[in-house]
């Protein structure tokens, strides 16, 4: 099998070099390959890779594998074409640009996952689960509680970080109830994306629109009611299929490990630094996130240095109280290790993101994104075009789609810019692969929350999508 791969690569390369350069139209410093076999092959490779991702539940093939291969094949074909035309640096520069975008996303996600793993190790999610269960909440109440929390946290902490945080709680509360975990994850994805749509800090696309100056900070809040509708409609329908039974009570009280709340405080500081880096310093948010990782490392160093003294004090107190259970627990304490939390990050998800970003970047470099955007905003009604942006973002990714729209800068009213902000933000909820929150949760709840499970509820989510658009068109009619 390994011997056939070089032969296949050589065959593809030979095929590319057989085509005459005259068959491609040059647009500035790049080639238009949208009507060339290379473009068609790239689309076929991308579709095949996504088909394998969609079949993850049946094939038991991790989603990163087909996307990594697809990314390599697409860019290898592009590079071969450009080299054959004497343009040796254009493809390289374009690929490096996509790689930089992924690097920022990778490091952002890595820090968020590290903090979440650290909070889980400090037993914060066990304590939250114990509190929820001891309060007597039913599964249906927990479904609503996690969704509402996701909706109101995401405008501050961004939809991706919020979804990861709430998914960890859901898995602790749901336990072995896979149906509840899966549906609650779907609800959290919808809620987090909806909550992020009415805040400049809630999603990368809203940040892009804000930084471009298309919508002022306070104007985003005109999308609050449509965002609520987008979350409430599918949540109400799905909640009817959630059992009212109460989770099994937790017998023992959960004792938080040392430093748990301080790690939460550091996480909030890290989010604040990420937001400030972007809004005040005009720097990528990842600068604040990586600085926050450094703070967590310093705190881990402090926990390790003071571990013996802390254990000695607690053992003395436990001995005086004749608390054998506490003494046994103290004997199993291990030092806090930040790099152990980094290693536990969901690497399949992170590598899948690489494949998506690089593949979509390749298709954009070929010319397909510009072609689609130009067709939509010159030949279609603007409202229909903005609605289609949301549907397209569910299939591909909202970041490159919004980037293409902002690049064109079509002449639109404030109401239309708010509409495309809404649709790009919440449209990805219709498929699990349509948003960063959905992709991340597929990794965090692997085997439970899958593409197929989410797809079953796509019509209900689409109903909320349409309802939110209608509410925006009615409520904010004066902005059009």
From TrEMBL:
Primary location: membrane
Topological relation to the membrane, as annotated: Multi-pass membrane protein
Keyword Transmembrane helix: yes
GO-annotated molecular function: antiporter activity
Keyword hit for S-adenosyl-L-methionine: no
Entry keywords, A to Z: Antiport, Ion transport, Membrane, Signal, Sodium, Sodium transport, Transmembrane, Transmembrane helix, Transport
N-terminal signal peptide: 1-25
A GO cellular-component term linked to this record: membrane
InterPro entries according to UniProt: Cit_transptr-like_dom, NhaD-like
Annotated TM spans: 37-55, 67-87, 99-116, 137-153, 159-175, 180-201, 221-242, 263-280, 286-303, 351-372, 384-406, 418-443, 455-475
PANTHER family according to UniProt: SODIUM/PROTON ANTIPORTER 1-RELATED, SODIUM_PROTON ANTIPORTER 1-RELATED
Name of the featured protein: Sodium:proton antiporter
Source species: Motilimonas pumila
